[in-house]
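Customer escalation, tier 2.

The customer says the design service returned an amino acid string that "doesn't look like it belongs to this structure." They asked us to rerun it and document both sides in this ticket. The original structure tokens are below, unchanged.
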């Protein structure tokens, strides 16, 4: 059974900032990048544990997958078979702030 995928407010804000940053350079590429990040995030509904544990936190429920230069950080809840996308974080930004992350 597939997991339900939710986006946190922080993840939505991250996504908006990413698209806004790229738009002045190439609006089409910005839109495409936003859709690709969402597609990768929602692909986690199947096999949600395929991402690695976030090394900074070392908590089994907090995982990430990498897409290009972006870390898609998410929290798994096996009890209700859901996962929350916590952040879309560019690798150049350094250490991610994860609310309730550790």
């Amino acid at each position: 059974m597939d997991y339900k995928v939710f986006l946190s407010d922080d993840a939505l804000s991250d996504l908006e900032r990413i698209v806004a940053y790229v738009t002045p350079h190439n609006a089409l590429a910005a839109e495409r990048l936003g859709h690709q990040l969402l597609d990768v995030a929602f692909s986690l509904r199947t096999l949600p544990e395929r991402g690695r544990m976030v090394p900074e936190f070392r908590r089994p429920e907090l995982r990430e997958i990498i897409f290009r230069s972006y870390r898609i950080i998410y929290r798994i809840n096996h009890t209700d078979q859901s996962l929350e996308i916590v952040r879309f974080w560019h690798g150049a930004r350094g250490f991610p702030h994860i609310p309730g992350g550790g």
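Tier 2 assessment: The sequence is consistent with the input. Helices lie at 9-22, 27-42. Residues 57 and 101 are 7 Å apart (CA to CA). Sent an explanation to the customer and offered a walkthrough call.
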